[in-house]
């Protein structure tokens, strides 16, 4: 017998002291106070009867003392927590990995798979033997231990109650490595996986997970697999008309049978489109919505069965996206007059254009972009990014060559080589532009040549000290460039590139990954408001807030009272939307076994029974005292 609680030597010291106190108080209880009474003859018979029963009275008092000492002994033994040596050596060390991925939100197990899993884990906790120890961990995009390795039932039940399903897939390999590392060196190690089995292979960047002598057990959850899902959702604004946008989304039928579904699109909370489509078995169908309007900020998509029934996983029936912000860009145009330039800038209502004569440069205020048309003054602070049209002189961050003219009958002066993938050439066609006169441009090694003639580069881009620039080496009035639709597109693309407005498809963040959210580089931390309303402090590094997101919906990131950014996150994981439960779990070529024996109510801690004995002896003492057996 071993004492795993208070050591035996300490118990003996406490017992000797407490026993002495009990005996002293017992002796004090036996002392009688002398009382003088008259008529001694009246008491003689009573005293004779008392003497006849004195031996029995002493026995009764002695029995009372024994009961009190027995109570003390039982309490001391309970503090010592005595256990047989076999129990100490043979107890199991168990890690329970509870799957909290999005598929565990499925409602085929009432009220949901995650609730059914928690009920199963509670039964295991209550069925632990006295020598078993357990650690409970939540398994989603990360692995979160919710308790220590303990046999305390209240602590383990509190850990189970804190489990909550997320909108991310589970990192099974990471969870298994955590379990194997935690159990290393412990006796009878075991990992119990409580999941629907949609976990994927136990492989990560380090290769397959090896569990060694750790026993792996699997408790399957779930029964059905009826589900349709939104597995892709993105949006972009049109570059020339930012009040209009287009949407790309994808819907998936994970069932073996065809289904009819209703697909709803909401802009700023208002229904903008409702369509009914038919999906074949296992079909993934992309949907394209061009030329939409009516929303200024948020978009949401919802999918549902056309007959009004519900599928088993509501988590992937809803997707979110945020339209790129429509902000006005402040543009300063330094020119002596250029009708083609001024007319092209009028096409975008979200440009706030200020035109000034070169002699009055700079204008008051700060600008996002400054366009130098045929002039190259010293750049003033607050000018923003720079667009040089027909630059000359020395106040430029590149070399300007001597003028070349289109006089060679064998070679046309124009764009002979183009980097058509560059953002400022998006939707443009410049290969047939005719130029009368140009100046070749020579930038530094890091600068990008976007357009080149046979005489040298005539369109380059780069940056100096963090300030972006683009230079066009000819006067557009000496070419047919401004007579083409590519001219305003070139200007607006360049301005969009400078102000970093994304005209590509904007996909929301994907849950279950580490997000790098743009934030003020001056801040060290930011406040992130999650879709459920909770707020978190997140670190900011190099102008990016870092956060592992596991909820779908709209987020708000604040780095100050006037600096708030809104963004969206979605599940959009086709693998996670396939919710068919797996009856078998294989790790490293080894099939997980069934969960071992957990009998609710069976505990082998002796201290529990010692406390029960204390209660029993106390009841006996109370009963005998009031029936005057021990007094």
Describe this protein with a few key phrases.
single chain, 631 residues, alpha+beta, eight-stranded mixed β-sheet, VWF_A, vWFA_dom_sf, VWA domain-containing protein, membrane
Please characterize this protein's 3D structure.
It is a single chain. With 631 residues, the chain is an alpha+beta fold. 24% of the residues lie in helices and 32% in strands. It contains 11 helices and 38 strands. The protein has an 8-stranded mixed beta sheet, with helices on one face. Helix 1 (8-30) packs antiparallel against helix 3 and helix 5 (113-126) runs antiparallel to helix 6 (153-161). It is elongated. This is VWA domain-containing protein. Pfam families: VWA_2.
Task: List the strand order in the largest sheet.
Answer: 18-17-19-20-28-27-26-23
Give the overall shape: elongated
- The average pLDDT is 86
- Give the number of helices: 11
* CA gyration radius, whole angstroms: 40 Å
Strand-pairing-aware structural class: alpha+beta
Extract low-pLDDT stretches: none
Cα-to-Cα separation, first versus last residue: 37 Å
Helicity, as a percent range: 10-25%
What is the number of beta strands? 38
Query: In what range is the share of β-strand residues?
Result: 25-35%
Main sheet, how many strands, which sense, barrel? 8 strands, mixed
């Amino acid at each position: 017998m071993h004492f795993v609680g208070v050591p035996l030597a300490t118990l003996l010291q406490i017992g000797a002291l407490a026993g002495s106190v009990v005996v002293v108080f017992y002796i004090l209880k036996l002392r009688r106070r002398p009382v003088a009474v008259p008529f001694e003859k009246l008491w003689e018979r009573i005293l004779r009867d008392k003497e006849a029963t004195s031996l029995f009275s002493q026995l009764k008092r002695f029995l009372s003392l024994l009961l009190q000492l027995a109570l003390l002994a039982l309490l001391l033994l309970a503090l010592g927590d005595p256990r047989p040596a076999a129990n100490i050596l043979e107890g199991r060390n168990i890690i329970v990995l509870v799957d909290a991925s999005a598929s565990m939100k499925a409602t085929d197990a009432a009220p949901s798979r995650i609730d059914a899993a928690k009920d199963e884990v509670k039964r295991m906790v209550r069925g632990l033997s006295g020598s078993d120890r357990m650690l409970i961990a939540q398994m989603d995009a990360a692995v979160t231990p919710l308790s220590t390795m303990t046999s305390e039932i209240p602590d383990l039940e509190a850990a189970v109650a804190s489990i909550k399903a997320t909108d991310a897939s589970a990192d099974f390999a990471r969870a298994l490595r955590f379990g194997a590392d935690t159990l290393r060196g412990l006796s009878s190690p075991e990992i119990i996986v409580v999941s629907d089995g949609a976990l994927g292979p136990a492989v990560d960047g380090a290769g397959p997970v090896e569990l060694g002598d750790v026993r792996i057990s699997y408790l399957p959850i779930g029964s059905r697999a009826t589900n349709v899902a939104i597995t892709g959702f993105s949006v972009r604004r049109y570059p020339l008309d930012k009040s209009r946008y287009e949407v790309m989304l994808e819907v998936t039928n994970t069932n073996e049978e065809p289904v009819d579904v209703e697909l709803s699109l909401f802009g700023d909370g208002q229904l903008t489109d409702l369509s009914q489509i038919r999906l074949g078995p296992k079909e993934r169908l992309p949907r394209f919505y061009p030329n939409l309007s009516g929303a200024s900020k948020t978009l949401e998509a919802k999918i549902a069965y056309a007959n009004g029934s519900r599928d088993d996983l509501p988590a992937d029936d809803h997707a979110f996206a945020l339209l790129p912000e429509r902000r006005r860009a402040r543009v300063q145009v330094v020119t002596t007059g250029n009708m083609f330039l001024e007319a092209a800038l009028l096409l975008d209502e979200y440009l706030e254009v200020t035109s000034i004569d070169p002699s009055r440069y700079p204008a008051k205020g700060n600008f996002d972009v400054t366009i130098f048309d045929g002039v190259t003054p010293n750049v003033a602070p607050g000018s923003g990014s720079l667009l040089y049209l027909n630059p000359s002189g020395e106040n430029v961050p590149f070399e300007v060559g001597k003028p070349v003219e289109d006089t060679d009958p064998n070679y046309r002066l124009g764009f002979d080589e183009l980097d058509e993938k560059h953002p400022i050439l998006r939707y443009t066609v410049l290969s047939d532009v005719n130029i009368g006169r140009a100046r070749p441009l020579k930038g530094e090694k890091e600068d990008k040549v976007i357009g080149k003639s046979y005489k040298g580069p005539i369109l380059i881009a780069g940056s100096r000290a963090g300030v972006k620039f683009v230079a066009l080496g000819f006067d557009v009035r000496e070419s047919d460039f401004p007579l083409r639709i590519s001219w305003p597109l070139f200007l607006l693309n360049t301005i969009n590139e400078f102000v970093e407005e994304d005209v590509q498809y904007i996909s929301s963040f994907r849950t279950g990954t580490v997000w790098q959210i743009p934030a003020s580089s001056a801040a060290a931390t930011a406040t992130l408001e999650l879709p459920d309303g909770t707020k978190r402090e997140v670190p900011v590094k190099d102008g990016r807030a870092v956060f592992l997101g596991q909820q779908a919906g709209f987020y708000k990131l604040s780095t100050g009272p006037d600096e708030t950014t809104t963004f969206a996150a979605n599940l959009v994981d086709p693998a996670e939307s396939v919710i068919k439960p797996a009856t078998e779990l294989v790790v490293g070529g080894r099939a997980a076994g069934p969960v071992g024996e957990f009998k609710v109510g069976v505990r082998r801690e002796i201290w529990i029974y010692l406390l029960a004995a204390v209660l029993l002896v106390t009841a006996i003492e109370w009963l005998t005292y009031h029936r005057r057996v021990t007094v």
